[in-house]
UniProtKB/TrEMBL annotation:
This is Glycosyltransferase. It comes from the Bacteria. One of its GO terms (molecular function) is hexosyltransferase activity. It holds the Pfam family Glyco_tran_WecG. It comes from Hymenobacter aquaticus. Keywords: Glycosyltransferase, Transferase. The keyword NADP does not apply. InterPro entries: WecG_TagA_CpsF. The keyword Transport does not apply. CDD domains: Glyco_transf_WecG_TagA.
Amino acid sequence: MLPKRLVLDSWISTGTFPEFTDAILRLGAARASAYVCCANVHMLVEAHHQPDFRRILDEANLVVPDGSPVAAAVGFFHHQHQERVAGMDLLPALLTEAARRGQSVYFYGTTDEVLTAMVARAQRELPALRVAGAYSPPFRELTAEEDAAETAAINAADPDLLFVALGCPRQERWMASHRGRIRACMLGVGQAFPVYAGLEPRLPRWARQLWLEWAYRLWLEPKRLWRRYLHTNTQFVYLIGRRALAYLAGRPHVPAST
């Protein structure tokens, strides 16, 4: 797997965009029951405060630097260039390469409307892609019987890649709890589903390069996201600033134990 570097208290995988896509597809081909997290500011702050969630990130096969600040922090603290590898870019790239390599995919999460639009686009643009299935689970905690039935259905469909969109941190906890139970590489890609489906627009590249994607999402969903962004963005700036001052003063950082 790709090497990892410490940002705050979480280990972030490093590499180029093609290296990430190849590593994920190799995990899928191996049917290794692996999982991949796409780390943004919110996820790293959650991991800093919650040891059990930090353990989930630590044990992921890959932790993708999804957020621009996360990629920039890798560069600052470890003296290496790290590009952002956004889940919204990773999803279509993986589908394209999966079609070329003859690998199958499964979409799990979000709503029936989004899934229908996603499958329609994939079949239209990538006719060689094998879509093994798509399922929108209930927006509540599943019973043990329901979870066992869904797990059996996914395994029966036998996908190489399982894309999961349940929202952070639910999708990461779900993937970790299903490692060893689902024979696929699981990827938590959250908001990439409605964007790929064409039901939610994405900022142009120049605005993404200015780190404005969070502001755009806040504008789209202010009631749901304003408290999260006010808390997590402020916390991240404070924590990274404190860590940077210690780093410049030559004081080594000891990772928090899980």
